[in-house]
Amino acid sequence: MPKAKATASSAKFQKKLVQDFPTNFLIQANSKSSYSIIKQIGFGGFGRIYSCCPTEDKKKLYAVKIEYRTQKKLDFLGIPRYYGSGKVVSPSNEECRFLITDLFASDLESSLSKGTHSLKDIPAIAIRTLHSLRYIHSVGYAHADLKAANLLKNGSGVEYFLLDFGIASLYQTTNGVHKEEIVDKKRKHDGTLEFSPRDSHTGLIPTRRWDMESFFINIVHWLARASDSHLQSDICAALPWTAPVKDPKVREKVTPALMEKVAQLKFKAFEDPKSWLASVKLDKFPALFDLFGEISNLTYKQEPDYVKIEKILRNLQCQLPSPDQRKKRASNRQAGASSSPAPDMRSPAVKRTRLSQKKSTNEDAHPVLNYAQLAIVEQLQSKPKVKSTIKKQISNSSVLADLSIISEDSSLKEAESNNNQETIGGIQLDQPERSDKVTQAKAY
What we know:
The chain is of the alpha+beta class.
């Protein structure tokens, strides 16, 4: 595998790359299955990839990824706990799928409408969202639908969980290689029209760059929503390209012509960020321009410098004014909401939804939501320890394993070419204790 050009952050990480494992080295899974290392077939910022085989059947080949445990401990990772999933027949005799996760009380969009958060809260929320995105990216997925309505929480505070992986997509092949930059006109305007990146309007598949540009768009939107001067009658006022779809009736059925108009306005705003941010009174914060530059200059396959982005967000938090007159702001917003109801951002203009997943030729394959949520942050320890992940493909369907195993057989390659509907085993990690045991059944 050719070595990619390293960024400053990835170069720093590569110094900690796990030591090479020799041929015939045995690794033991929690399931008590053991595998024998054959040879290294690649490496990247998250570890080394080897071919391996089960000790009981050396004719079967798999791929194993081995990496150090992360040394920096996170006190929170906004990925909801996965309790279970399956299929159920509805009262109208339709076959549905369901997913059981934690039950959450409110979403960020609702909190912003109520004036719950100050400007200084937004970078804190963004940093936690960045951690969630970074973890999702580390297992090969792009979320592809980041927005405030998909960030949910229980209680007060800024600890939001990222949900709705309905159109999440693998940006890597099953052996860890980034997919090529190929335009697919059928994928044009995928995602939520207001918050999708420029890549969505050209028909490119979701990638880390996709998520990060959407991340910046959302931050601008959140800052405007948390601002005292923001008009609640137009909750997307910070996003100038949303003007053509501002009317709720238009949003119910957005035509291709309107999508193209939105795309043109979005490209125009990104060409002149100074005018864009000045129009919403956010041009007085240098860190916001630093964030724009860091994200807008990402190449298609480039890994974002998450550490640098987090530092920029912390600088932004220092530059933002302290909260004042929060009660007055909240009462003003409630009064404005009663006279001019704001459109529901939880049902935005979306072309591609979870229903499109039905086109998969693999009827038994679980959607990517299960596996992105199965990988919960591991309990971090002071000394680096080696962990291994193996992904196993059985009967064209992924199964949960203590080590996530990727099969190299023909069925996996066939799944990879099947309209990006390949499935990938979840990573079984230690999960942090949680007190909330309430679950919900969510159809998807």
